[in-house]
Amino acid sequence: MTKIYFINAVRRFLIFSACLYMSSCQKSFDANSYKPARTFGGYTSSNAVAGANLIDHFSFEGNLKDSVSNIAAVGTGTSYGVGLKGQGLAIGLNHYAIFTPTAKIKQLSSMTIAFWINTPINAAGIQTPISFVNQNQFWGNLDMFFDGQSANSSVFKVHAFGNNGTKEAWLTSWKIANPWDTWLYISLTYDNASSTFSFYVNGTLVGASVQTGFGTPNFANCPDIVLGTIQFQTNPSLTSATTAQGWASNVLGTMDELRIYDKALSSSDIKALYQLEGLGL
């Protein structure tokens, strides 16, 4: 009897131990590990979108370094605030950052410029998130700015020189509703083959413009690219053609995730970037 009792006790102990082991295994089971990765436009991360064509990327995570070229911008009064993903570049009145364009930027034929911005209305003047300097001209080689600002809307204007500086494009009909104090994803593409500029907000095409004969964008006389204001509002002015203007000002808010590509991204890629970065991916 004693032997049988002992054997049964051992059996009960082994069964109990097995149940504990199985229970602990079940508790550590993570159902999420079996979920397929979320994809948008065939991509699972924003860095994968046209990765081979990405020539500049500023994430503004506590620094002004371009993660592609490792060139750092120089800030004047800028700091780091809450971005769309982690930190972002906080600008403000009389504040801006300047970086030196890489050789790949100066060789751009087709291109995409995309960034997030969250800014209040600026009654003092135009807000220019990015300006590609032309040190001999009033306007830069490429300027992108909010103008016609009202409480519920703004015109987003683009100015650009092309064809060795002999062609000038003004794109002034694109409007954004309720643009203030919210994150917007701004994307501009230029396709050299069709001479077409396309403008997107939050992944959606707002408008396109064919500029016949525009040719290759002009980046001659372009020693700097400015973030947060236009070329003549820096101190000193970055162009010999003019100094500060009373109708121009600075971005008052925050920029994040600036990307420059050496191709005109498709609308599906623009949409994928908007969706992925909006999810922090």
From TrEMBL:
InterPro entries: ConA-like_dom_sf
GO biological process: carbohydrate metabolic process
Annotated coiled-coil segments of the chain: none
GO molecular function terms noted in the UniProt entry: hydrolase activity, hydrolyzing O-glycosyl compounds
Listed Pfam families: Laminin_G_3 (PF13385)
Family matches, as Gene3D superfamilies: 2.60.120.200
Protein name in UniProt: LamG domain-containing protein
Species annotation: Arachidicoccus soli
